Amino acid sequence: MNKGLTDAEVKMRQEKYGLNELYKKNKHSIFKKLLEVITEPMFILLILAATIYFILGEARDGAIMLIFVFGMISIETVQEWKTDKTLKALKDLSSPKIKVIRNGIETEIDSLYLVPDDIMIIYEGVKIPADGIILDTLGLCIDESSLTGESEGKWKKVFTDEEDEYFKTYCCYAGTICTQGKAYVKVTNIGLNTEYGKIAHAVLNEKPQKTLLEKQTSKLVKICVALAIVLFLTVGILTFIISKGTIKDRFIEGILSGITLAMAMIPEEFPVILTIFLSMGAWRLAKKNSLVKKLPAVETLGAVSVLCVDKTGTITENKMEVSEVSFKLNSIPNETEKKEIAKIALMASIKDSFDSMEIAIANYSSNLNINLEDKIVYSFPFTNETKMMGNVYQMDGKYILAVKGACESIIELCPSLSLNDKENIERLIKEYSLKGLRVLALAKEESNEIIDTLENRKMEFVGLISFIDPEREGIKENILKCYNAGIRVIMITGDNGYTAGAIAKKIGIKNYDNCITGSELNDMTDEELKLKLKATNIFSRVIPEHKMRIVKCLQELGEVVAMTGDGVNDAPALKKADIGIAMGKHGSDVAREAADLVLLDDNFNTIVNTIEDGRRIYDNIKKAIGYVFSIHIPIALASLIAPMLNITSEFLFLLPLHVVLLELLIDPTCSIVLERQPAEPDIMKRKPRKITDPLIKKDLLIKCIIQGLILFAISFGSYYYYYQISDVYTARSFGLTILFLGNLFLVNVNSSNKDFAITSFKKLIKDKVMWITNILTIACLIIILYTPLNNILKLDPLTPIEFIAAIILSIISVFWIELYKLAKKLLLKKRND
Ligand code: ATP
């Protein structure tokens, strides 16, 4: 056996040939990133304001402005860097793997590190990552449609003769899929040198489509920017008209006021919130065994209304054990008969298989001291269509065929069974299945000639073997959780209807006795299926292709569908579903590639937790957008109202410097504190959100506007009052302190729609990051008020009494909503009573 490359040889080749990738990822240079940030409208405004200060000869103000610009750029760059890092880590986790032989042992590596001359092991479901020549193979069939367009699988063999065809039968090619068999393949070309690499440019340059959420936020940003432009002009012109001095002074004053307002109006945080919340959300999910491959999936998760799941491995543990057996029609077989059943079942299995049912057969046989030494001379692999498999052995000069599979398929191979026998067998099958057992039938045939087809066989029925596969722990509770959350659960299985129904009943799936079989599905039109789908939650004896129809019809009924799958043939349905979920443990590469989400533990409970998290993330995005909206209102209104009250730029409540200072605060607080908010208590008791629902609904909008207006009225009112009786520096300090603290409290009260602020606070009480953010905000306020910085920022220190008064006012301006929450709770309680 070929020992493969050694580590030293791999290293040498890696240096020579590089990585097995189709395109070099453009690493964003820091310069390019900086340029991107600086060309954002917010920064253009900031730099414009700084320039004006310099022109006015107020170099100090200009310099401070530039320091703030630097601060904001640093925050943005750090945030982007962190998001990039998270996304890269996620990508690495989901990068394709391949089994290779290196240093004489079989290991799994990232396909990225494959080098020429590596020996890769290809088997069913693997997407081939490089071109190579076949060294050894057993019944290898490859789907080369991605290269040749031919949908029919191509049978492969080891090299015997040179061939004229461009794509050789003794070679495997990158991007193609193994649909059957196994092979050892020596890599010849990697990356762009592969046949796929040569034609892949077009595919790679595809631009990702914008998601609904992205579209909604960019629409919101556009509206705000348009408003900002209109108000910039209005305020600018108004200030120009009311201010005194030379035309030049008035012009500059107009521009400065306009800029302040425009800066307050541009919600540049919106897109940042989206990227950070989604990527951090995906990162948190990955730690809980759920790998998000496409970021927008996080947002769709919260809208899922139907969950279509496989039975084996997802609902059940996929840890099988032989339970009851029957020999021919005898359900209480003796020891010799049991041995015969075990022997035929073992003969019809793959040697050293990973399939849990075959492992159970091997264990059962070894307990009965059955071992096989004879050689397989022909195999009939398992297919979803026939639902059976078998092997032909040569024993004592004879050929023996042993077959196991779905009972219907096996009975067809045994024409000697009488009608009465068949009825008795079916009765036994039903008896086992109703206990939730998975039942296989066994048959054998002896022949003097080699057997190479299953057609027209005259096999002897050997018996039934049934397996117990326990349901996953906690599944019943999670199914109930789905129902409470308005999510339907549909079980789609290759197993028979009785077994599926019995398991569905055990775990609490509704309408468990209403089942549609694959063949019934074949006879239905889409319209009939849609009608049935309204009340059917079990599909049995289906093949993967049926899943596609089920998804399509459910979607046409207006549902948002999440669908699990693991095989190569599941890929189209996974792609079609709104959320395609592939199995990480047992799934094929192809399914993983087509999916939006990979379940690392194949567990139904993880899917439910992921949906719950998806809802939480979406909730938090909404909370953050609402908060940003609210806090921008007092900032914008303060600049808007100034010309109306005849306040010239020097005496403004918020100078551009203060707006930037507040902006510096808003971004990190919301992306840090709100991103971490735990789920609302009723998160899995609500109906799924409609996918077309606007991000900010009317009630949220009204709440945000009222919150913003009250904060504005109190902060600006206090400033204006002080401005009349005292100097502008103190007035500004007073108003700004209310805004600073109000901002802090606003994050807190908006942390939950239902819980009181104190409850939300308690939930994160052990969270260091939350504490750091809050303490930093307060420290920042104290520094700007009580250090020499105050003079530069045109502020005066507040007396202790004034400071306490500002705290009280900020509490009033924000915490009124708690009374509203209380009133709502009392009302609900009264209604429930
Ligand atoms: P699910 O689709 O929920 O995972 P499943 O695992 O029962 O359910 P399949 O793997 O498609 O679905 O199997 C369908 C049927 O084919 C089984 O019920 C069984 O009768 C038969 N079958 C499955 N695996 C084997 C096997 N290794 N040998 C023989 N028959 C098999």
3D architecture notes:
- This protein is an alpha/beta fold and 833 residues long.
- It is built from 30 helices and 21 strands.
- The strands form 3 sheets. The chain has an 8-stranded mixed beta sheet with strand order 8-21-20-19-9-16-18-17, with helices on both faces. Strands 1, 2, 3, 4, 5, 6 and 7 form a 7-stranded antiparallel beta sheet that branches. The protein has a 6-stranded antiparallel beta sheet with strand order 10-15-14-13-12-11.
- Helix 22 (589-594) links the parallel strand 20 and strand 21.
- Helix 3 runs antiparallel to helix 4, helix 4 (59-93) runs parallel beside helix 10 (269-286) and helix 24 (656-674) runs antiparallel to helix 28 (768-786).
- The N and C termini lie far apart (77 Å).
- The model has no long low-confidence stretch (mean pLDDT 86).
- Adenosine-5'-triphosphate is lined by residues 310-312, 355, 357-358, 382, 384, 387-389, 404-406, 438, 440, 493-495.
Radius of gyration: 34 Å
> Within the largest sheet, what's the order of strands?
8-21-20-19-9-16-18-17
- What proportion of the residues form beta strands (DSSP E)? 15-25%
Mean pLDDT: 86
Structural class: alpha/beta
Number of DSSP strand runs: 21
Small molecules bound: adenosine-5'-triphosphate
Largest sheet: 8 strands, mixed
Q: What is the assembly state of the chains in this entry?
A: single chain
Spans of 5+ residues with little confidence (pLDDT < 50)?
none
Could you give the distance between the termini? Answer: 77 Å
Helix percentage range: 40-55%
Quick one: overall form?
elongated
Count up the helices.
30
